[in-house]
Specification:
Elements (H helix, E strand, L loop, with lengths): L10 E4 L5 E5 L12 E6 L5 E5 L10 H4 L3 E5 L5 E6 L17 E6 L5 E6 L5 E6 L5 E5 L27 E6 L5 E5 L4 E5 L5 E6 L2 E4 L2 E3 L2 E6 L7 E6 L4 E6 L5 E5 L12 E6 L5 E5 L5 E7 L4 H4 E3 L1
Antiparallel strand pairs: 1-2, 3-4, 4-5, 5-6, 7-8, 8-9, 9-10, 11-12, 12-13, 13-14, 15-16, 17-18, 18-19, 19-20, 21-22, 22-23, 23-24
């Protein structure tokens, strides 16, 4: 939906050197294809999950935006396997067990094949389906409560923590069974058990300079050590990546600042680590690129340097 992207394939696979290996995507037989892709996830069986949410120019009152309300599952070569949600049916609300509302992210539990969807631009919840059949399993809102689609007050850190999600923008699961949700509009991370039981939360408190603390979580990845002791959080509003201790949820270090040079960011939107510990950060809006950071030794600024 961005200028110049009309002829770009929706799904592109690159090799380790950044060379295009193959690409696919678009309308096909047996499924619907939306107008705005948002989120991609490769599961434990190498299936590719593609989400659709939003639309530019973004207008939550317009069908051009809210129609993007589905998630599709494909083989690595683009063969269609499963559809969850329907294009054009995106305003049924956070209690619907059949329809989505502009989903933002996907994570699949390798042990159960359940697919967790952050259903977050129109709706305010995490919803879980059977990843093999598409059957509804459960859903929850902020603090594990039933989601509420009523008016959302303007967020401020001076008020009591909001009881509901405000744009749950990412969902990811750790190896110990905990599920992490980026509550982007409320500038916090909430942690749950897989059944939706609330465990913990923390507002992002990164050093923004001039004595200010803050940050907005857009996506989460886990450090590659067996205990996954750290969270890597991409801050699209602060144009940075923060590292948090997973036990404390406190920011320990950060890197990056707004800019277009290597190692700088312009609206970083997603991040992921590969099996070798390489960090990939995708930038949206005027960023329009992916940067790869190689793991190094020493402090954080040396731990990930742009290739």
């Amino acid at each position: 939906s961005q200028s110049g992207a009309a002829e770009t394939p929706p799904v592109i696979a690159f090799d380790t050197e950044g060379v295009v290996a193959h690409s696919w995507g678009g309308p096909g037989e047996g499924y619907e294809w939306g107008t705005q892709t948002h989120g991609i996830y490769v599961d434990h069986e190498d299936n590719v999950w593609v989400g659709f949410g939003g639309g530019l120019p973004y207008d939550p009152t317009a069908r051009a935006t809210t129609d993007n309300a589905l998630v599709l599952k494909f083989t690595p070569d683009g063969e269609f396997l499963l559809q969850i949600g329907d294009f054009g049916v995106g305003t049924e609300g956070s209690d619907s067990t059949m329809f989505l509302g502009q989903p933002t992210d996907v994570w699949v539990d390798a042990g159960t094949s359940e697919v967790y969807i952050a259903d977050g631009y129109t709706n305010r919840r995490v919803i879980v389906f059977d990843g093999l059949t598409g059957e509804y399993v459960r859903h929850w809102g902020g603090y594990g409560n039933a989601p509420d689609d009523g008016p959302v007050p303007r967020f401020t850190r001076d008020a009591a923590p909001p009881s509901q999600f405000n744009t749950p923008h990412c969902v990811n699961g750790a190896t110990d069974g905990l599920v992490y949700v980026c509550d982007r509009g409320n500038q916090r991370i909430q942690v749950f058990q897989k059944d939706g039981t609330f465990v913990d939360e923390a507002f992002i408190e990164a050093d923004l300079g001039e004595g200010q603390l803050g940050g907005t979580p857009w996506d989460i990845a886990f450090s590659p050590d067996p205990a996954q002791r750290q969270l890597l959080v991409v801050d699209g509003g602060g144009h940075a990546v923060h590292v948090l201790g997973r036990d404390s949820l406190e920011v320990t270090e950060s890197f990056g600042r707004r800019g277009r040079w290597a190692g700088q960011f312009e609206s970083p939107h997603n991040l992921a680590l590969d099996s070798r510990g390489n960090l990939f950060v995708g930038e949206t809006l005027d960023g329009r690129r992916i940067q790869k950071f190689a793991p190094q030794s020493g402090s954080l600024n040396a731990m990930y340097s742009p290739e």
